[in-house]
Amino acid sequence: MSQPNIPKQFLSIFNNKPLIIQTVDRIKRYFRKNERIFIIPEELKGITHKFVGRERVIIEPMRRNTAPAICLAAKILERNYGDGVIHVMPADHLISTDKNFIAALKFGQKCAAQGYLVTYGIRPVRPETGYGYIKTGKKIGAHRGLSAFGGGDFTEKPSLRKAKQYLKSKKYLWNSGIFTFRIRDILDQIERFIPDVYHGVIRYMQTKKKKYFQYIPDISIDYGVMEKTDTLCVVKGNFQWDDVGSWLALERYFKKDKNRNVLIGNAQGVEIADSIMYTYGIPLKAYGLRGVVVVVGPRGVLVCKKDRVQDLKTLLK
Question: pLDDT tens digits for 268-281?
Fold first, then answer.
């Protein structure tokens, strides 16, 4: 759903409001302005300022995935404020209710204060092949209806057969990509498991030379740290969560017509079925399609079979 220059957090597809604004609205009653910080790559500085210009930001000199971004933010926060607990969350997810989400974060904060690296798992409601899964281990805590478990195996984007097994087993949760940990704890674990990231960030901060950030490995915090640490804690969230990471998400939030089509904007079709048609304003007309996604925007047109939507990231790189 994203494009490199306009990621999906800036789109107003869901709830008629950009996801980045929904994220701010979700947390602003619980975290003061000086406690909210966006971590963004340099090329998104302008568009981010347009949407949330009054929010604080930390600028990555270039995109290097979540581990370098979190390491950079943690080092800057440690330098400015010392140790403390931080929550890390994407700005492009759909979450409800806010009350349940914040309750899970508060419980996660208690776990992080005990030295755990916390991630939040969501009970699967369908066999989803586009999400990561995490297996829950032994129960290690509970608070007001929330439970925390030791972490087991991670699985990234399983086959449909495995996703159905995970749903049936009730031992696997969707990996939400939301984290809570103490600054010092996550930095220690990054230095332990991915030292090239840790020392690369330090060199960049000391020199402010972009080349040192460029040399840092492109690696996620899940793969680099969370899958390896022995202090992982999984809080089972009781909030609704969707990363709306593909155009198929529209089928979950918009009404289908009698032929199982989702038509959004000035879109019309004849003899089409089981398809998604979305236009930003340019008239879209289609004939004789089945199982296809068609997206029309001011910068281009996207056409893809529905069963290949998960592979679109390769095309858009």
Answer: 999 999 999 999 88
- Looking at the chain, the domain(s) classified CATH 3.90.550.10 span 8-245
DSSP state string for 22-44: HHHHHHTTTS-GGG-EEEEEGGG
pLDDT tens sequence across 222-281: 999 999 999 999 999 999 999 998 999 999 999 999 999 999 999 999 999 999 999 988
Contact present, 140 and 110 (Cβ < 8 Å): no
Q: 8-245: what fold?
A: Spore Coat Polysaccharide Biosynthesis Protein SpsA; Chain A (3.90.550)
Q: Is 101 exposed, middle or buried (0-12, 13-18, 19+ CB in 10 A)?
A: buried
